[in-house]
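A.,

Following up on our hallway conversation. Structure tokens first:
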């Protein structure tokens, strides 16, 4: 396990909220940047400290290897001067209850900073020329202690145990030789609820569309068109996804609820009122409408709900 420090003042909101890091492959002038190259060196299980506005406000655990990815659309005009080609690294972040101000502990931290490519300057201010910096295990453990979080890797466990169906799908993907390696890895990550698909959907939906819950550790990126029926492009299409709380995701996945294009909730006749009551689900709820592409995916979802009702009968 290794420790990393990321400086992402401009993109922190999107990256921590979406559980990923993204950097261009090269500097704007085409030269290499060691801190961008570090994206390819990070490994699953590594720990990342998120630094922005003078504070370490979140910590995360790397969930997979970096893969090629264009600049996320949610960045908008941020980094217009950046190269569009970049690295995408899935990281499950958790916000700290009490952000850590490294400058307040500079006497302890300074002697442990790397001699080159340090994430902060000798005066304690951030070094914005450095994006992802490698830091020593000693410094990593010190930051854990100062932040009062103990051993982070024992606390962050955002990956649910895959179902047998998911495991079989992953095995089949691992055998594929007809698609690029980077797409194959992205599909595998998407199948277990992590990676590019979740990050892209989370970049648009910052909270559960039904309950309003914001804690991204507790939310799922749910496919509208089921994985088994979707092609590879649809499996990674953010418009084929909604961010939902786990109990809402279960109902949605089983076609016991769906949504009209205007966002109105549809409840299958076979879903008992007791479930709605005990789970505090308002049958008149609305999720504020769908985009055009989402609506096309949802049409087949609604059809599946209605077909399920017909085949089950009264």
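Then the amino acids I'd put at each of the 314 positions:
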């Amino acid at each position: 396990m290794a420790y990393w420090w990321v400086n992402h003042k401009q993109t922190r909101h999107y990256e921590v909220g979406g559980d990923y890091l993204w950097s261009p492959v090269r500097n704007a002038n085409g030269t290499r940047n060691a801190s961008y190259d570090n994206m390819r060196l990070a490994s699953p299980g590594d720990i990342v400290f998120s630094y922005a506005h003078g504070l370490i406000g979140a910590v995360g655990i790397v969930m997979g290897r970096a893969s090629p990815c264009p600049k996320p659309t949610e960045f908008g005009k941020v980094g217009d001067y950046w190269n569009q080609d970049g690295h995408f690294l899935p990281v499950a972040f958790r916000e700290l209850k009490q952000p850590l101000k490294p400058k307040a502990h500079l006497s302890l931290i300074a002697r442990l900073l790397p001699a080159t490519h340090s994430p902060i300057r000798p005066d304690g201010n951030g070094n914005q020329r450095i994006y992802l910096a490698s830091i020593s295990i000693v410094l990593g453990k010190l930051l854990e202690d100062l932040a009062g979080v103990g051993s982070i890797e024992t606390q962050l466990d955002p990956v649910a145990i895959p179902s047998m169906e998911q495991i079989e799908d992953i095995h089949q993907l691992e055998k594929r030789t007809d698609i690029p390696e980077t797409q194959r890895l992205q599909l595998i990550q998407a199948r277990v609820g992590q990676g590019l698909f979740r990050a892209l959907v989370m970049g648009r939906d910052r909270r559960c569309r039904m309950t309003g819950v914001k804690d991204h550790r507790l939310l799922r990126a749910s496919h509208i068109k089921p994985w088994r029926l979707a092609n590879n492009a649809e499996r990674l299409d953010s418009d084929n996804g909604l961010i939902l709380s786990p109990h809402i995701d279960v109902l949605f996945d089983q076609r016991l609820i769906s949504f009209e294009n205007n966002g109105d909730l549809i409840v299958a006749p076979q879903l008992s009122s007791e479930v709605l009551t005990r789970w505090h689900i308002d049958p008149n709820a609305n999720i504020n409408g769908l985009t055009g592409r989402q609506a096309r995916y949802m049409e087949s979802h609604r059809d599946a709900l209605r077909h399920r009702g017909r085949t089950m009968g009264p």
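The mean pLDDT is 84. Curious whether your intuition agrees with the design.

B.
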